[in-house]
Amino acid sequence: MTNISQAWGAGPSDRFETLAAPFRPIFARIRERAVTRDVERILPREEIGWLRDAGFSTLRLPVEHDGLGFTLPELFGLLIELSEADPNITNAFRSHLGFTEDVLNAPASPWRDAWLKHLGNREIVGSGFSELGEGKIGTWSTRLVRHGDGWLLNGEKYYTTGSLYADWITLGAADGEGNPIGALVPTGAEGVEILDDWDGFGQALSASGTARFKDVAISDDLLKPTALRFPYSGGFFQLVHLASLAGIGRAAAGDLSRHVAERKRVYGRGNAARTAQDPQVLQVVGKVRGAAYAAGAITLKAADALQRSYQAHQSGDADAKAEADRNADLEVSQSVTVVTSLILDASTILFDALGASAAKRSHGLDRHWRNARTIASHNPRIYHDRVVGDFAVNGTTPAPHGGIGVADTTQQAKAIA
Questions:
Q1: pTM of the model as a whole
Q2: Distance of CA 257 to the CA centre of its chain
Q3: For 92-136, how does the pLDDT look when each residue is reduced to its tens digit (9 = 90+)?
Q4: Fewer CB within 10 Å, N side or C side of the chain?
Q5: Domain named Acyl-CoA dehydrogenase C-terminal: which ranges (predicted)?
Q6: CATH topology of domain 233-394
Q7: Which residues pair with 184 in a beta bridge?
Q8: Is residue 124 a contact partner of residue 168, using CB atoms and an 8 Å limit?
Q9: Among 404, 379, 406, 388, which residue's Cα sits nearest to residue 94?
Q10: Could you tell me the CATH superfamily of domain 4-124?
Q11: Which helix (H) or strand (E) covers residue 239, if one does?
């Protein structure tokens, strides 16, 4: 059955049903063991392999470069469906999808040509930007310094989402003078160690733990031409999370409907001989489903803004680029709190339609809230609301997202002075 026949609404384009059709049987297979993987902490290596074989890693790559040529709204429509099956896997692909946008937005160069070929060969890229410790915002303790004809990489990264499943890690480091520099590191290179030590209560299988680099040799061709990311990167990475939340909402709605339909026991204060006919229970089911529908619709609407930003940058019109980038950031920020609240609420109230047996770990219903709460903790929603309010009242263009780290008190003092 398609999205439309399940009343989730039409896809983001006339061709979306055709584009999504080859992946839907794979998503169904992925979902079959989602609860077991969550309970037993089984990493989805096999499932990611299925997606790689089907070309999922090449969704945005142009057809002439062995990709599938998805638009951004089409990409996010498919991410919602994957997240309904297992949001851990969506998160594992998040950095890869972002790096693909880096390549697509890069100016013509041998570097771009090389990475279009790597991506066309279905090689997967994981994340290596975040660091723990007391490094200041915008700086890295990881070092990439000249050594002979190449470079040596030393340091440690955390939140290296997807790297356990990847062929490459895209990362940020500092060169010998402390300047930011970007590089691609083969995950199988000597001196690379990737640990599955993420201990969060949600998204436990997205492989968001530690990566260590000890004297890893890096050649010049693996350096990125710039440490900057693609222009709509802030909104893009946040919208992947919103697509994950929308998919979690759909999964929660589906699980709830099935449990209510199968439930035989009723409460003495209930309204029907079967739970499936109790109007108050049906109201809860409808509310959860409505939250999932709204989350998906909002996500796809914001994806249109990202597509406009991408197209503006292809046009070369500086004014159009600036306006499209600003609007993309704002439209995503305007979506964050609404989508987050919808799904956190839906993944909580679903238990109101069921009995105490719904709390059994074997049912896995708690994973919806745990995953949603973990995803929602990235890039706190309170800051998104403030940015939107500042634009609405004062016309302020959102500042860059800026990463995370210890505050630079010297710069703060200068700003106050």
A1: 0.95
A2: 26
A3: 999 999 999 999 999 999 999 999 999 999 999 999 988 886 667
A4: C
A5: 241-378
A6: Butyryl-CoA Dehydrogenase, subunit A; domain 3 (1.20.140)
A7: 170
A8: yes
A9: 379
A10: Acyl-CoA dehydrogenase/oxidase, N-terminal domain (1.10.540.10)
A11: helix 233-262
